Amino acid sequence: MFSGCLGDKIVGTWNGEKTSATATFDKDGSYVAKLGALEIKGTWEKTDSGYTLYYQDVKVGSAAFEDKILRITLGSGLLNISDTFVKA
After folding, report:
1. Which of 30, 26, 84, 27 shows the shortest CA–CA distance to 57?
2. What is the rounded average pLDDT of the residues 10-22?
3. Whether the Cβ atoms of residue 53 and residue 44 lie closer than 8 Å to each other
């Protein structure tokens, strides 16, 4: 599931431009997204069109680059994020 993740440009911490959300993507294929006191931990996978985000093996979102800006859409229960992110 995580082939090609090592050294991927999504790896690192990203800050929301319109919200206080943060997302940290690790090279091992895991991520943590936070918005205030809410947090979700899951895994990510690179696809042909960007990235797919999973929580407990269920697809809960996506991410894609628009130049150097990362657009993340993530929805899982109470935590819903749709924003553009810049690298911290």
Report:
1. 30
2. 97
3. yes
- Copy the structure tokens of residue 71: 């657009």
Read off the DSSP letter of residue 11: -
Inter-residue contact 17 to 86 (CB < 8 Å): yes
d(CA 7, CA 21): 23
Residue type, 30: S
pTM of the full predicted structure? 0.89
In our burial notation (b when 16+ CB lie closer than 10 A, e otherwise), range 59-83 reads ebbbbeeeeeebebebebeebebeb
Q: Are 87 and 68 in contact (CB under 8 A)?
A: yes
**Residue 27 or 77, more confident:** 27
Q: What pLDDT is recorded for position 80? A: 92
